[in-house]
Amino acid sequence: MKPKEGEFAQSSRFYRVRMREFFPESSQHFRTANFTSAQTEEIDMKSRLLATLLAACAALCVSSAVRADVLAHWTFEVTVPTTAGPHAAEAGDVGGQATGFHTSTATVYSNPVGNGSLESFSSNNWSTGDYYQFQTSTLGYHSIAVQWDQTRSSTGPGTFDLQWSDDGVNFLTLLDDYNIDAISWSSLTYNPLSTYGPIELPAAANNKANVYIRMTSQVTSASAGTNRIDDVIITGVIPEPTSLALLALGGVLLRRRRESR
Ligand SMILES: [Ca+2]
Ligand SMILES: [Ca+2]
Ligand SMILES: [Ca+2]
User: Fold this and answer.
1) What is the pLDDT of residues 144-189, one digit of tens each?
2) Cα 222 to middle of ligand 3, angstroms
3) Which helix (H) or strand (E) covers residue 172, if one does?
4) Would residue 6 be called left, alpha or beta, if left means φ above 0 and alpha means ψ between -120 and 50 degrees?
5) How close is the Cα of 107 to the center of ligand 1, in Å?
6) For the chain, what are the domain ranges?
């Protein structure tokens, strides 16, 4: 796309606009066009510098937007659930608590094999409205997301809602009636078909002292039917001042180059 020497007047308007940014005091020349090869080289060099800086800034902004931190990760390898909890997250920068809730007092909480691991969080006697709940803090974080592994026995509940709340009382549905297949888990082999998400929470979940996420059964199943969950991971993003600083630095460098002419 580089114009040949002496052809600047005919090159694209975009190019001329960019050149005027660099040489505001002599922008008239770009319409009449007659450059020595040294001038053309300088124009190209500055143009490339600007493009490089813009690309670097853009790349940094994008990378900071997608790089998420793990706030809480429940593996159940350490807590090894035998009750409704609370069970502390084994990993993550913030931590949090997992609990189960069942209407039936006959419910047994247990720890069969996970999805490629030894332990998970399992329960039986499922009624509509029973749930697994995961709590963490999102203070200082945005772009909150959750992913998890879930399966069931052949007679366990297979329809759930994913819900969230910032007070633990009023829940909003993120995923309505998602389906859980009865996939046999192995402690040695991870099965990606049992992984759900990541599902992003709305901006209202940003920067909250408490965020609660529930997987709530939409059906009542046979009393012996189980549903189990493993590797629940809540992530968030800390706004990074470095990308903003780099953008500002780019602006300073460009100004200096202009002023030094
Ligand atoms: Ca596990
Ligand atoms: Ca176990
Ligand atoms: Ca539903």
Assistant:
1) 999 999 999 999 999 999 999 999 999 999 999 999 999 999 999 9
2) 19
3) strand 172-179
4) left
5) 21
6) 8-66, 69-237
Q: How far is the CA of 121 from the centre of ligand 1 (A)?
A: 8
The CATH number assigned to the domain with range 69-237 reads 2.60.120.200
Separation of 76 CA from ligand 2 center, angstroms?
9
- Residues 111-133 pLDDT 10s: 999 999 999 999 999 999 999 99
Distance 161 CA to ligand 3 centre (A): 5
| % of the chain surpassing 90 pLDDT | 66
Torsion of CA 232, 222, 85, 199, to 10 degrees: 20
In 3D space, the residue among 159, 158, 160, 155 whose CA is nearest the CA of residue 222 turns out to be 155
How far separated are the first and last CA of the chain, in Å rounded? Answer: 26
Protein residues within 5 Å, CB atom, of ion ligand 1:
75-76, 114, 117, 119, 230
160 token code pair: 């759930």
pLDDT of res. 8: 42
Q: What is the tens place of the pLDDT at every residue in 216-233?
A: 999 999 999 999 999 999
CA of 218 to the centre of ligand 3 (A): 6
